[in-house]
Amino acid sequence: MTVHSENGLTRPMLTAQNVTKTYQQHVAVNDVSLEVSQGEVVSIIGPSGAGKSTFLRCMNFLEVPTSGTVTIGERSITIGPDHKSPSRKEVAALRRGAGMVFQSFNLFPHLTVLRNVSLPQERVLGRSRSEADERSRALLERVGLSQKADAYPSKCSGGQQQRVAIARALALDPPVMLFDEPTSALDPEVGAEVLAVMKELARDGMTMIVVTHEMAFARDVSDRMLVMADGGVLECGDPRVIMKQPTHPRTERFLSAVLDR
Amino acid sequence: MIESLRYIAIGIGATLTITSSAFVIGAILGLPLAALRRSQFMVLRAMARVYVELVRSVPPLVWLFLVFFGLPQAGVSLVPLAAAILTFSLIAAAYMSEIYRGGLAALGRGQWEASSAVGLSPLDTARFILGPQVFRVVGPTMATYGIGLLKDSALASTIGVVEITFRAGAEAQRTGSGLTVFLTAGIFYLLLSLPLALASRRVDSRLRARYSIA
What we know:
heterodimer; B: MetI-like fold; 0% strand; flat
């Protein structure tokens, strides 16, 4: 199933309009726009330094864009010369719309797996401890880690830690999930178990944006593929079409490099 | 000998009072000071920085004299013990804030980012995520500083606080046997600092084993 937001059938779940991020002289993201419909999975690929992660991090304001508008659900923040910088509350409200999974997992090492997943629910959503734990256990079951609930992250493999991180993000019931190279720090074998969980999420209709180097995942799971280089978009469309017949020579070069590996 | 021992031992109370009060007050005041060092407002950052640098560049003895002999000119007269506690607390706050700052830096950006990504407020992030981890990292450093504080507290004898060194000085003058008297004082300090050092090492290795924090 391919859902293009352009067809106007589905309301966009997440919109980035003309997002630009500059650091001093360096333009990391240059005027990138993206519309993601409900249930759509978008992969962002491209060489390192392309600005993929920076763009993704602009979606939940881990990086504050230099200019542009980000809308998730009903919440929208515009950054620009005519707009005052957003309050902490506005940013927090926008973030509620997107769960984030990092390349380096970033679990809380001093908390058990269960507490990692439960604590944000209690503090952010105001769930009771038993309510939060119940939800956490259900999610840990879903990512295949119920037996690790009482372990500390250091006693989990990388793949297990990343699956806990996915459960932690899902526990807040975000309408959109952002993945920032979720398998790049993992052995391919271990990465596969993380990808399996992500595939299942996609099948269940989760709206996802995934920065990745996993070309098979991008081709098989995502509805659309965004190819970035040097902070800009090279092309965007059906992953199978792009991978078979890239329109941009730069895409072709990148694809042949990663596919030959 | 036994008589000297008993005489000097009376000073232990004041030594421990100064050390523990300054340690606790400094550990508490160091928190907001460390937070100021990371403030988004430059003026606040600069103020905290100046405080820390000022405290660290002037000898503790000078601060002690400033508080005890200087403050009365400004209309604030303190008894020696209070002056010593105040001075060492203010000094400890500066050092503790630096210790916290180092601990925070050691945590890296990932913990901040994960906390904000899941929507924790800055206060919750400090309380549930950064705080517990920082204290585990800085615990041993704080204990080491505590031992230093214990030794620095001897300076309070110069303004007449009746602590170990003060009593030892008086006893040495009375008996004329400086060697045994000050050896005794040294052994008292050693005995007071040893448990702190041992406890910190024990807690440290236990926590490391449990959480695998480098």
